[in-house]
Fold Glycosyltransferase RgtA/B/C/D-like domain-containing protein.
Amino acid sequence: MNKIKSFLQNNIAISWVLGFQLFRLILLPFMGLMPQDAYYYLYGQNLSLSYFDHPGMIGYILRIFTEIFGQSIFIIKFADFVVTTLTILSFYKLASYFLSKEKLERAFVLLASTIFISILSFNSTPDVPLLLFWTLSLICLYKAIFEDKKLFWILGGIAMGLAFNSKYTALVLQIGLLGFLVFSNSYRKLLLSPWLWISLLISVAVTFPVWYWNYQNDFASFAFQSSERTSSISEFKISPKYFFGAIGHQMFLLLPVLFLIFITFTYKYVKRALLKFKLPQAKTLFLLAFFIPTFVGFFALTPIYWVKLNWMMPSYITGIILAGMFISKKLLKIQIIFSIVFHVLFSLQIIFYLVPIKSDDTWVGWKELAQETSNLQIQYPNSFVFSDDNYKTSACLNFFMDEKIYAQNIIGLPALHFDYLGDDLQTLNNKNAIFIDSDKRFKDNKLKGEKNALLSQYFDSITELKPIIIKINGKEARKFWIFYCTNYQSKK
């Protein structure tokens, strides 16, 4: 014990990182199920080569953990925590190639102190495995390029492929790699190396399951991820709230000190490149090659498009290494203070639910809704249950209830991967149903008083029942409108 204490005293950075991770681990049992947790757990319970809205890596990970340790909210969160811890350790290894010991320790603490690491540790999303395989890809590519180790071209190809099998934005890895080689005077010759192209071919080969699933399903996933967003961007409508919203999100995820350092060094390097036509030395250029396309690229879209808060996360890996080159001890202390304050407030919200959340993106109320829904099915036997909010209510009820819960494809609406579960909706014909509709802006206990017009096209009669009110800590916190629908007739 004394040796451990002495080691931690002599390694302040490691102590801080362990402290943040221990805090997150202690908080795990208090975390409720998020809709994303339930949805990607559904992925894992319905194994497929890929899925409608994302590749399947996060689903496979949750399936492995729940098969080994059993199904529970804690195990799902623990899977996220373990994978994110591996990302932190991989980051340390990657950063050690670029930074001196003192700067390495600062970068290590910077990463561990961020809110985005906490989000990845608590919430199942494709970004959880993406960040791990992104970091491992960069380690392999560094070894291949700067240490001329041929084996790492192969390993890098595998890692890049697994990153793409986590999330489509991993395609930026190949773009960053080629961009670095094009602009690097010292390593441009590698563009003619067979090892580079072998690595890229391997990365494509590893992604074969995703491509084959899309081929089997009319490239539905690729179309979903591209068509709507391309259409929105092409409209080119300036929206200041998108831009300032993105700034707010990034300041939250990174905390103000780290975000401002990102902006500072980005401005410095871009200005030098555009005005003086001067690029940094090779190792710094390598880091920028995997930072600029994602961070600056997505930021450039924010005046005309709502960029989600997690889209820039891959850029944080090399961005924080670059920040480690610039941040002073004083600024690091300020970053830690911000982090402690935010994490304390975050933990109070998690444990005591002090501020009501007017959204379905919450960790409270789902288990209670499942119990109330089970009670309803006793009153209205032989009724199936469905909801209409893309995936959230349906996925959460599927997690807590033994029977199958359906989504809005019941009434002919697109339902993400629920459309690809192989359900024959005609087997539900002539059955009655309980339709659950979340009141996101819960204000009172009144009936909704109006019916979804689509319900009348699929059911003979629709009767609104008393809404389900969920209490948290003795206070009414969530509301769900309930409709009893008779004699379902599928149109497929």
About this structure: DSSP finds 22 helices and five strands in the chain. The two ends are 67 Å apart (CA to CA).
